[in-house]
Design brief:
This protein has 14 helices and 22 strands. By secondary structure, it is α+β, with helices and mostly antiparallel strands. It has a five-stranded parallel sheet with strand order 3-2-1-4-5. A five-stranded antiparallel sheet has the order 12-15-18-22-19. A hairpin with a 5-residue loop joins strand 20 and strand 21. Helix 7 runs antiparallel to helix 8. The longest helix has 12 residues. The relative contact order is 0.13.
């Protein structure tokens, strides 16, 4: 089969890495891809992806990022009789509009934070002043992981309202839930779903969860927490029958049980970089079965190994970053046992050298017999990679390690 993957980040590199292992894949394309993906697939940048798929006899397309899904790329492919993995524009509104998602959650009695949806900044500010802080401010539209602010004061919340307004013309103001967060993804084929292993993301840029929110600084799986998310997905599918693709639920594990913080309509990033390496099955089989509405026909088996991903970013992330810095040590890192380096913001310069080309540059993932072993190997690989301004958190998976230590002590 000829396969096309749409996207160019670490998530898409992980998907290409796993799809390339399928015996059924004859040719793999990626649009636009990156320097790491180019070692597995032919990277392309056509003006019209639908035409490219038709002209090049693409048998199946996998969409990575949320923007094309929310823009209706699945609808466009299907209108031309082309097979594609992902939700339609209508169902992708679960991610494309935080306001729509919140209203959906409340309508279908899915546990979530109390919230208000506002069409102008003045009403949003009045709501914040009445509710007080801490409080959560969310942009309604897509914001590349940067549209959520957990404001500790009313002044901070008012500044956040002004800032996130640039992502859309509505804002969601939510109560601030407490507990640990968990990322739960499921394959959904329109009538049934299959849960993938739970992962935990680290969103803030600095150690000990300090600094601004980012698209994700690292992740690990399994998480060592009891997360019962089945009922959430059952109610979601009941409220939106026909949804096909990946559905990602970002959960807060509160004292009252898990509550939905957000929905995403695609594989998480960097959660994919720790879930995919744990797959002990042909990913193409599973994605095809999901798209075709026959998910029950495939077996999803998982490796017992734990996985840890440490994201390396350019200096200044999540703000303005410098691009074009040469990356050294990649070969040495990938030669380590059970290590995969997933490229996110990379390209080759005129001299053929791999250089930085974005905020999140690399996702260094390692497998191990447990979280401690996987984290140790991931950081061993990180220490071999060098580029100007490189930044990474040094405490990825530390929550899991603390839980393990506590259990042993008790």
């Amino acid at each position: 089969m000829n396969i096309l993957v749409i996207g160019g980040g670490g998530r898409e590199h992980a998907l290409c890495w796993k799809l390339a292992q399928s015996r059924r894949v004859t040719k793999l394309f990626c649009a636009p891809g990156n320097a790491g993906i180019a070692e597995l697939a032919e990277c392309i940048a056509p003006a019209d992806l639908v035409r490219f798929a038709g002209d090049n006899r693409i048998d199946f397309t996998v969409v990575g990022p949320e923007a094309p899904l929310c823009a209706g790329i699945v609808d466009e492919f299907q209108a031309k009789g082309l097979r594609i993995f992902g939700p339609t524009r209508d169902t992708a509104r679960l991610e494309g509009s935080k306001a729509f998602a919140k209203q959906f959650l409340l309508k279908h009695n899915i546990p979530t934070a109390a919230a208000g949806v506002f069409d102008n900044p003045a009403d949003a500010r009045d709501y914040v002043r009445k509710r007080g802080a801490p409080i959560v401010v969310k942009a309604d539209g897509l914001a590349a992981g940067k549209g959520v602010v957990v404001a500790q004061t009313v002044d901070e919340a008012e500044r956040a309202i002004a800032d996130v307004w640039r992502f859309g013309n509505r804002v969601v103001i939510e109560e601030c839930l407490t507990g640990e967060e968990a990322s739960v993804m499921a394959l959904v084929d329109g009538k049934s779903f299959r849960l993938l292993p739970v992962a935990q993301d680290h969103k803030r840029v600095g150690d000990d969860d300090t600094g601004p929110n980012t698209g994700g600084m690292g992740a690990y799986s399994p998480v060592g927490l009891d997360v019962d998310a089945a009922e959430i997905f059952e109610r979601t599918l009941a409220g939106m029958p026909g949804y096909r693709g990946v559905l990602y639920a970002g959960l807060m594990l509160t004292d009252d049980g898990p509550k939905v913080l957000e929905f995403n309509c695609r594989f998480g990033d960097p959660e994919t970089q720790v879930v995919v390496p744990r797959m002990d099955f042909d990913l193409l089989d599973a994605l095809e079965a999901t798209a075709d509405g026959r998910l029950g026909s495939v077996q999803l088996q998982w490796k017992r190994d734990a996985a840890v991903c440490v994201v390396m970013t350019a200096g200044g992330y999540p703000g303005e970053v410098q691009r074009g810095d040469r990356i050294a040590g990649l070969q040495a890192a990938t030669k380590l046992a059970n290590v995969a380096v997933f490229h996110a913001g990379t390209k080759r310069d005129a001299a053929g050298e791999i250089v930085t080309d974005g905020g999140r540059v690399l996702g260094v993932t390692a497998l191990g017999e447990n979280i401690e072993a996987a984290a140790r190997q991931a950081y061993r690989a990180v220490e071999l990679i060098r580029f100007d301004g490189a930044h990474y958190r040094r405490d990825i998976a530390s929550r899991a390690l603390k839980r393990t230590t506590k259990e042993v002590t008790e």
